[in-house]
Amino acid sequence: MPLTRRDFVRTLFVASQTAVAARLLGEPLFADEPSSPALNFAIVGDWGRLGRPDQAQVSQQMGIACDKARAKFVISVGDNFYEDGVISVDDPQWQQSFERVYTADSLQVPWYSILGNHDYHGNCEAQLEYGKSHPRWVMPARYYKQTHRIDATTHADFFYLDTSPMIHSYQHEAKMRNVLTQDVPAQMAWLERSLAASKAPWKIVIGHHPIYSAGTGHGNQPELIATLLPVLQKHKVQVYFSGHDHDLEHLKAEGIDLFISGGGSENRPVAPIPQSEFRKASSGFAMASLRAEEMQVRIIDNLGNTLYGTTVGRMAVA
User: Fold this and answer.
1) Which helix (H) or strand (E) holds 304?
2) Could you tell me if residue 281 is inside a domain?
3) At residue 23, does pLDDT exceed 50?
């Protein structure tokens, strides 16, 4: 039977996508080379589901990618334990959703972690306490800063936020009542001071909730568009990593590159929005390679396919 025009267009589209994927997959994973040192790390979010198939697959591929890239650490962008966080440092979820899932040698590196809204359903303090006796888990406070050396003369400042208290609707949800104990103006004042004081040529901010998102599960976050985005722009932040929507995305807004890595254990549909550079309803994670003048980011699915790659240039610091 001859192809209809619709079939022909569909076949052409699939072929073009396959060619793009093949090109990306053919590129070696970046690694820290003596002649061009890099700070390599993974970003994953929305993952803690008792090792269910997608979570286990993502863990396996993260292990492979982090080994090839010699990753120094992992960033967890929140919703670490579904559906209701953990109740204590002895909660079975620590073993069932974390310790016994992320077992690759390359994943036995620091996990710099933040809280998501599902973590607020449980005992947030337990996640802060866990790191005191389990050094792989790093969450010294609900919001905090980490500095990492890129090369002999260049470093990067990472600012980890607690975004759930910033979302107004959570104040009326019974399971989210703990957000009412948090002082959002104090957190924002800390962020303003910390960004203003930073002399790092790279400033990277991490929060659970996206600013803009093509995800149909949650989408854009008006509170962060109104309050957080102007702060990032003012202080010349180059990159914002988040999760919350269960997909993989790259967006741009006000000169800032926004990445969503919320596919740690499942995925949901996406739809186009003006800020979108790439979007995919897929489980997976992101890998970043940060050098003095640029950051490479690749998005990898739960089967190990590199879906997308991009380079973020360093902006001049005022």
Assistant:
1) none
2) yes
3) no
Q: Does a structural domain hold residue 9?
A: no
Give the residue-averaged pLDDT of 271-281: 98
Q: In total, how many domains does the chain have?
A: 1
Find, among 290, 289, 312, 287, the residue nearest to 298 by Cα: 287
The pLDDT tens digits for 120-177 are 999 999 999 999 999 999 999 999 999 999 999 999 999 999 999 999 999 999 999 9
H or E, element range at 9: helix 5-25
DSSP class of residue 26 equals: T
Task: Retrieve residue 268's tokens.
Answer: 């949901």
Residue 124 counted as domain residue: yes
Q: Does the annotation count 218 as an active-site position? A: yes
The pLDDT of residue 32: 64
Q: How far apart are CA 266 and CA 54, in angstroms?
A: 6
Structural tokens at position 228? 């957080």
Calpha distance 162→142 (Å, rounded): 6
39, 148 Cβ separation under 8 angstroms: yes
Q: Do the domain assignments include residue 28? A: no
Secondary structure of residue 219 in the 3-state scheme? coil
Q: What is the dihedral of CA 179, 229, 158, 100, to 10 degrees?
A: 50
Hey, what are 111's tokens? 């996990």
Q: What is the CATH number of the domain that holds 45?
A: 3.60.21.10
Q: DSSP class of residue 89?
A: T
H-run or E-run covering 150 = none
pLDDT at residue 7 greater than cutoff 80: no
Q: What percent of the chain has pLDDT over 70?
A: 88
Q: Which of 218, 244, 246, 250 is catalytic?
A: 218
| H helices present in 159-200, as ranges | 184-197
pTM for this prediction? 0.90
Q: In angstroms, rounded to a whole number, what is the distance separating the alpha carbons of residues 202 and 195?
A: 11
